[in-house]
Design brief:
Helix content: under 10%
Low-confidence stretches: none
Strand order of the largest sheet: 2-1-4-3
Distance between the termini: 12 Å
Number of strands: 4
Order of helices and strands: EEHEE
Structural class: mainly beta
Number of helices: 1
């Protein structure tokens, strides 16, 4: 599944331990939308995506 398919969620995208994006899925930069993710977890009301 691709990141762009996670709609209407607050999301934090982490790459190599660093946050590369934090916001809603509608605001994800185009260069990250097609990225495959390795792991998804929940942190409070946010979805944490590791790429």
């Amino acid at each position: 599944m691709k990141i762009k398919e996670l709609r209407l969620l607050n999301i934090k995208i982490i790459k190599d331990g660093d946050i590369v994006f934090e916001g809603t899925t509608e605001e994800i930069p185009n260069n990250l939308k097609e990225t495959e993710y390795k792991n998804i977890s929940f942190e409070g009301v946010n979805v944490v995506v590791e790429i």
